[in-house]
Amino acid sequence: MLLNKILPLCLTTFVACCGFNSQQSLAAYPDKAIRLIVPFAPGGGTDQISRALGAGMAKALGQPVIIENKPGAGTVIGMDTVARSTPDGYTLVMATFAHAVNPSLQSKLPYDNDQAFSPVALVARGPNVLAVRTDSPFKNVDEIITSAKLKPGSLTYASQGNGTSAHLAGEMFVNLAGVELTHVPYRGASPAMTDLLGGQVDLFFGTAAAVSPLVASGKLRAIAVTSALPSPAFNRVPTVNDSIPGYGVESWYGIYAPAGTPVDVIATLHSAISAAVKNPDFVKKIEHEGLTIAVGSASELQAYVQNEQARWKKIITENKIQLQ
After folding, report:
1. CA 248, CA 54: separation in Å to the nearest integer?
2. How far, in Å, CA of 98 to CA of 65, rounded?
3. Residue 216: which of 200, 237, 198 has the closest Cα?
4. Which of 8, 146, 193, 206 is an S-S bond match for 211, by CB 3.0 to 4.6 Å?
5. CATH assignment of 33-126+250-318?
């Protein structure tokens, strides 16, 4: 009889403890380091922004944010790593322009772009910059167009990979200006800029984050910004649109988690990102590099990227842009 009375009591206590421990586990997020996947090589603009953001997030979350570079396949390798990860909030990705254009450029992705990820927050937006070496003979867009028409295909432009903003910025330039340039893709912005500085390539439509330090140091010359309007960060630098009407390309950075990540975890991450971008050092870095902080809700990131996907699908189809 005593056993019959004790057993139900033990079971009730066990269940209650399990529930308590489960609540403790959920409340403890994060209780270990978080991986932030950067789908580009170390040293480029996306890598720099990710490291700066990760440092601020680590302070807000109380756990390390480890940057893990997984370049290749126009960001698909890094994005796929996250798509296949456990949706527990411990693996994130810094998505970029390529995420919005890959469905239109690549016939088959290893993941469903619209279903494989949970949006967390848009971080920043800004122009790309058409840059050359300081000893380059080109001083403006018109000179580049004239040279490209005289010697079709002789001018080369670098990008941080197929399908990235630098690649598509160059392809839009080719199509709208009616010229022929040779695209040279790299595994990240850093090796692209190394070859630009070394004279192996002529032009680079790099992100503002990647190009700004070298422009500031006098190693590169900013010819034009790719945004439709001038950028306050690049004083007196004209737009490509001034010479090629209708031209406009914008880079962006946004954090995603794997699909199915709990809503409360997304909220915690969003709060950490919101805190990180307010850090004066991060603000100074972002503004100096021509970017605008643009942290909104997760749904706003989703809407922004869906709009970009639709816009670029139309442009890619109409201009017959293909991966090389």
Report:
1. 30
2. 23
3. 237
4. 206
5. 3.40.190.150
